[in-house]
Amino acid sequence: MSQHLPFLPILLPFLTGVLLLFSAEARHGARALFALASTLAQLVTALTLLAGANGWITAPWPGEVGVYALGNWSAPFGIVLVVDRLATLMLSLTGILGLAALIYALARWERAGSHFLPLFQLLLMGLNGAFLTGDLFNLFVFFEVLLAASYGLALHGSGLPRVKAGLHYVVVNLVASLIFLIAAALIYGVTGTLNMAELALRVPQLDAEARVLFELGAWLLGLVFLVKAGAWPLNFWLPSAYAAAAAPVGAVFAILTKVGVYALLRFSILFGQDVAPLPFKGDWLFYCGLATIAVGTLGVLAAQKLDRLAGYLVITSAGTLLAAFGFTGTTLTGPALYYLASSVLGSGAFFMLIEMAERNRAAAADLLAISFEALGLQDRHESEHPDEGTGVAIPAAMAFLGLAFFSCAVILTGLPPFSGFVAKFALLKAAIAAPEASHGLHGSLLVAALLLSGLAGLLALSRLGVRVFWDSERPVPRLQWLEAGPVAGLVVLCMVLAFGAGPAMDYFEAAARSLHEPSSYINVVLPGGAPGKGAP
Amino acid sequence: MEIVFAFAIGIMAGSGIYLLLRPRTFQVIMGLSLLSYAVNLFIFGMGRLRTGAAPVIDMIRGDDPARYADPVPQALVLTAIVIGFAVTALLLVVLLAARGLAGTDHVDSREPERP
Fold this sequence. Notes:
The complex is a heterodimer of chains A (536) and B (115). With 536 residues, chain A is an all-alpha fold. Chain A has helices at 8-21, 28-53, 85-107, 116-132, 136-154, 160-191, 196-202, 208-229, 238-244, 247-271, 282-302, 306-326, 333-357, 369-375, 397-413, 419-433, 436-469, 481-499, 501-515, 518-525; strands at 66-69, 80-83. In chain A, strands 1-2 form a two-stranded antiparallel sheet. In chain A, α2 packs antiparallel against α3 and α13 runs antiparallel to α15. The radius of gyration of chain A is 22 Å and the shape is globular. The two termini of chain A are 38 Å apart. Chain B is mainly alpha-helical and 115 residues long. Chain B has a single domain, classed as Orthogonal Bundle (Helix Hairpins). Chain B has helices at 2-20, 25-45, 71-102. In chain B, α1 packs antiparallel against α2 (25-45). Chain B is elongated and about 70 Å long. The model of chain B has no long low-confidence stretch (mean pLDDT 87). Chain A binds chain B through residues 137, 141, 144, 147-148, 151-152, 155, 158-160, 163-164, 166-168, 170-171, 174-175, 177-178, 181-182, 184-186, 188-189, 194, 536, and chain B through 20, 25, 28, 32, 35-36, 39, 42-43, 45-48, 70, 72-73, 76, 79-80, 83, 86-88, 90-91, 94-95, 97-98, 101-102, 107-109.
C-alpha cells in the first residue's frame, strides 16, 4: 500500500474535485468538511513524503529519490512520478497554502460564485502533478489542468474588473501553452523521448544539426516557464490578474509563479550547466532575474492599492529566485529554496490579509479617490461581498490586522525577526562569499538588487499601511475566526521557519545538494541507463 | 508532401498570429484556434511524415518498427486537441461574459478614444 503514496497527492484532489462537482451546492456543511478533510489528507501525505525523502522515516522506496511508475510501466516507456526533496518541499508548500486558503474561503468567498471547491481541488491536483511528474508532456498536461482550474478561479465572484483581467490572463496563458506544445514536439522530434531523465542522457549525444533544433525547442520551453514565473518582460498580465482575483484565490496564486521557477530549476540542472541550452544557463537567467526585480520594485513603489502592491511583490520574489538560481555556482540554491518557502507563505498570508483590511474601503472616505479616478482605476468593492456584515466581529480586529500586516511586511521585505530576514541574510552571505575574481560583479549586483528591493518594499508597505490602519474615519472591519485563523497560522509558520532556521536550512541545503547531482535522479529513473540510443 | 505540409502550417500560424493581435475578442479567439491547428499539425509532423504506415501494430505487417508510424506524436496530438478544445470553449464563455458586462467586444473592455 505504502508504495502508492507518491500517487496520492494527484489522486486525492482529483477524486475530491469530481465528487464535489456532482454534489448539490446547497449542502455547504458537508461539502466544506469533505474538501477540508481531503486537503488535510493531502498535506499529511506531502509531509510524509517530505519526511521520507529526507530519511526521517522509512520511505517506501530505497535511497533518496523515489520513482513511481504509473500503471507499472517503467521509464522510458511509461510515465513516472519522481519524488525527491525539492518535489516534496513544493508539495508541502502547496498543501499548507491550499489548506489555509481553503479555510479562509469557507468563511464567505466560497459562496460568491459556483463551483469554487471542485475548481480549487483541481488546481491543487495540477500543482501537485506538475511538481511530481518526470515526463515533459505530462508536465504540459498538469500545467493545463492547473491553468484551466485557475481560469475558473480567477473569474470567481465575477464582476467587470475580474472578467477583464481574466480575459487577458487566459489569452496570455493559452498562447504560452501553444508555445509549450511546439517546444515539446520539437524536443521529441529531435531526441525521440519525453522522459526528463532520458532527455538529460540524450542531449549531449546530439549531433550539430539536431543540436540547433533542440536549442530552438529549449528556447521556447524556457520562454514558457519564464511567462509562468512572471519574469520581465513577460509579466504584464500578472499584477492585474492577481489583484482582481478573490483573496483566497490570490493566496494560492502566490505559488503559481513558483511552478515556472521550479520547472526552470529542474530542467536547467537536468540538462547540466555546461551543455544547457541558453535560457536555462546561468548568466542569462541571472540578468533576466535582475530585470524582473527592477520592474517589480518600480511597480511596488508606484502601486496605489494594496492588492496591486501584492502582485508586484510576487514579481519581485520571482525575480529574486531567478537571479539566485542563475547565479554562477551552486551555493545560492539552498538559501534560494528557503527564500521560496518563506515568500510563498508570506505572500499567501498577505493576499488574504489585505482583503480583510480593505473590506471597509467603500464605506470609508478614500483619500486617494480623486487620483484613482484620474488614473482610470475602478473601485471594485461595490458588489463583492455577498453577505457583508454577517461575520462575528472578533475582539480587537484592528489590532490583529495591524499586527499581521506588520508581520507580513517584515517577512516580505526581509527584516528581522521573521523568516524573510533569515532568507535574505543567507542569500546575501552566499552572494558575498562567492569567489571575488570570477563573479565579483554578479555578487555586488545581486546584493544591491536585494537590498534596494527590500527598501522599496518597506517604503511602499509602510506608506500604504499608514493610510489603511491609521485612518480614524474607517469603521472597524468585521472578521470571522475562520478568516483570521489561516493568516495567523501562516505568519506563525514563518516564525517557526525563522526560529528553526538551523534545521530548516540544513534541509534546504540537502535538497540543493541532491538537486545538483542529476546523476542520482537519472540513475533512479533509468536503472540500466538509456535503452535505445540516438534520434529516430 | 513536406512542402505542402510546411506551407499549411505556416499560413495557418501566420493568420493566427495576425488575428491574435487584433483588438476584437472574436478575432482573438479565431486566431487562437488557427494557431492551435497549426501547432497540432506541427506535433503530428514531428513524428515524421509517412504514407501508408499505421501507428498500430497488426499481425499481417509483423513486428518491425520501421513499418509503422511513430505513435507517440499522434497520442500527443489527441491530448493537445482535447485540451485545446476545452480551453477554447472556456475562453468563449469568458468572452461572452466580457461582452455582456462591458458592452463592447474590445479586448480591453473599453473602446479606444478616436481622435
